[in-house]
Amino acid sequence: MPDQAVILLAEDREDDILLIRRAFRKAFITNPLQVVRDGEEAIAYLSGEGKYSNRSEYPLPDLMLLDLKMPRMDGFEVLEWIRRQPGLSSLRVVVLTASDHMHDVNSAYKLGANSFLVKPMDFEDVVHMGKFLTTYWLRMSKAPETSRPQRLRNSPQQGPQAKAS
User: Fold this and answer.
1) Residue 59 burial (CB < 10 Å; 0-12/13-18/19+)?
2) Is the separation of the CB atoms in 45 and 8 below 8 Å?
3) Rounded to whole angstroms, how far apart are CA atoms 23 and 132?
4) What angle do CA 150, 155, 159 make, to 5 degrees?
């Protein structure tokens, strides 16, 4: 169901998170919105590691909105990691960033971004962007299958975070 499709927002700026939440409410977008605040947290969420291991509470997203300028690991590194994961390589990732530098646009597409949007400055434009994103990516467009990387059971040599290749 398109209204139940999960959106993962990878964004470090609290103001932008609040703006997007508010705009989605105004646009009557009822999709679950999960938020991670840096690149390492995005990977932990997608991998189902640590606090994100409860898959019913933190399901895989149907769409990821990815900021490029984040602490600990930037959006380019996250995008590169996603595209290397067999179960996640087809995840729909829309870069949503303040940067309009052509180098960033080209780099994001080379790394496999499905789209590149510059964050709107006007609140009403954020509302329209939210409507567009959900209409196109979650209602009109058919989603590919995704899955989390398989994790091995704990063993003395592998430790608690070990994953299958």
Assistant:
1) middle
2) yes
3) 12
4) 75
| Strands of the 33-36 sheet, one edge to the other | 33-36, 7-10, 63-66, 93-97, 115-118
| pLDDT confidence of residue 103 | 95
Q: How far apart are CA 165 and CA 163, in angstroms?
A: 6
Q: How far apart are CA 144 and CA 87, in angstroms?
A: 10
Residue type, 92: R
Which pLDDT belongs to residue 155?
38
Q: Which two tokens stand for residue 122?
A: 């006007």
Task: Report residue 19 as tokens.
Answer: 């703006």
Cβ-based neighbours of 70, under 8 Å, separated by 6 or more: 10, 11, 12, 37, 38, 39, 42, 78
According to DSSP, the residues that pair with 76 across neighbouring strands are: none
Give me the count of residues in the chain: 165
Locate tokens 């508010």: which residue? 22
The 10s digit of each residue's pLDDT in 130-155 is 998 888 887 777 666 677 666 544 43
**φ and ψ at 8, to 5 degrees?**
-105, 120
